[in-house]
Amino acid sequence: MSGLLVSLQDAVVQGVLWGIMVLGVYITYKLLDIADLTVDGSFAMGGCVCAVMILNFHVDPWVSLGVAAAAGMAAGAVTGLLHTIFEIPAILAGILTQIGLWSINLRIMGGKSNVPLLKTDTIMSKFIAATGLSKQAAAMIIGIGIAIVMISFLYWFFGTEIGSAMRATGNNQAMIRAQGVNTNWTKLLALTISNGLVGLSGGLVCQSQKYADIGMGTGAIVIGLAAIVIGDVLMGKLRSFASKLISAVVGSVIYFVIRAMVLRMGMDANDMKLLSAAIVAVALCVPVMMNKWRIKKSYTEGGE
Amino acid sequence: MLDIKNVRKTFNKNTINEKKALNGIDLHLNEGDFVTVIGGNGAGKSTMLNMIAGVYPIDSGKIQIDEINISRDPEYKRAKYIGRVFQDPMLGTAAGMEIQENMALAYRRGQGRGLAWGIRTSEKSYYYEALKKLGLGLQDRMTNKVGLLSGGQRQALTLLMATLKKPKLLLLDEHTAALDPKTAKKVLEITQEIVEEQNLTTLMITHNMKDAIQIGNRLVMMHEGRIIYDVSGEEKKKLEVEDLLKKFEEASGEEFSNDRMILAK
Ligand SMILES: Nc1ncnc2c1ncn2[C@@H]1O[C@H](COP(=O)(O)OP(=O)(O)O)[C@@H](O)[C@H]1O
Ligand SMILES: [Mg+2]
Q1: Which CATH architecture has domain B2-81+167-263?
Q2: B113 vs A177: CB contact, 8 Å cut-off?
Q3: What is the pLDDT of residues B100-116, one digit of tens each?
Q4: Which chain B residue shows the shortest CA-CA distance from A169?
Q5: How many helices (H) and strands (E) does chain A have?
Q6: Is the interface score ipTM higher than 0.85?
Q7: Is residue A302 part of a domain?
């Protein structure tokens, strides 16, 4: 029983740390209507950069986290340039960056596919040393703290003039261009900010699990989409922007809790990706099928 | 005010779908001109407005507003001078955003956008008054999402947004064509009120010949990417729909071939 409790607590912590990534996915997928596949690569990049910074360059863990976010932003900017200046479809632009990042991330880690952080300080270990909290409690407080800061930042940012223009870009590009906004710029900026959050999340996960791995971001986009779907199902009734952002993080927590439970029930960890993909696919199919069904039902032969 | 010199545009050049949409357009608008534009389907009316707004680059020619050459400026830069309303009511507004948010976006047309708050409290009373003038009750629904509005309401809002910050030039592309007759009439009335009040230089495409004759101080007719008839002042006021049809046949050597126009007679 206590084993279950521990693994659920672990899952909640993971959910919060990955929740920062989900916020990034929320920006592109929900606000800009772009499915950005850069995420898998920029998440791993955040982790790899963070690990190497701490281990090889002895940089402060907090600063390393900042560098991880900056690396993610750079990756997002590359996708943004490919998509806006060179007019490559967003999905393909994201795939290209993601594939390229695989090699770059390996280089960052000096050719190794895994960099452990065994004896070095992390933001969690420092926090534990300062407060005497348990490992889980420390990671949880840090995760929730950063999530609150990021949600506040996004709430503020999307209320500003640039942020509003960005939301309008996701709504109706013709309209916002007619109002004098360069939509290439807003899209580029959105992809940059989004992947900055993703890189930050990768850095956090790396420090909490005490290693970076070349494959740590594989499937991140699907986790992100699944978390958004779950959050939407649970909290979709709430309309305010702040609650939408919170629901993304909550969705992430629920996702990891579900994951922990099905794993405990004996599901093969490798099947988890299939389950995630199925969740997202079903969530995308349901509205379409409902609509088709409605049209079919409303058909009457010969009118009336 | 607006100066268009020998503007040409061919779509899909050197392909089987090559289409000469504009064949040397020359047009000069004076400050305060309200010009109605008519012509058959595919005459190039929308293309002319799109070229002025910068939706696509022109092949050759020159477009100037108040002596400023905007021929090669991108669409978002020209927006500083131009307010626009499209034929499709869905195109002019952001459906997922509030009425007041849409207005705040339009109020900043052509200005640099920074990290200041997207909508200031002080603006809201201005928007309230502007919406009230429309007479559609939208002033009491300022925090509603625009997606909840009808086509006519959205078109009236788009019109208001296009003129919230006075544009040098207002471009209207059959902006009442997608509305039912009653709503179309209302939106057209609002259009006239706003244009008159702000003394806006306006180009309005319409498929209704009667409207084209009655509204504005000048009328141009287009055919195959050219302006084939340009009339203003007293002469325009005396026009009849029959005169326009005859003019068209004279200039083009064809029967007028726009179903919607014939009906609008
Ligand atoms: N984006 C485009 N690509 C290719 N052809 C176009 C495009 N826009 C307009 N055309 C063509 O140019 C011609 C003029 O179109 P348009 O300006 O829309 O006519 P109107 O508004 O007078 O009905 C038409 O033959 C149309 O098919
Ligand atoms: Mg047209």
Answers
A1: 3-Layer(aba) Sandwich (3.40)
A2: no
A3: 999 999 999 989 899 99
A4: B94
A5: 12, 2
A6: yes
A7: no
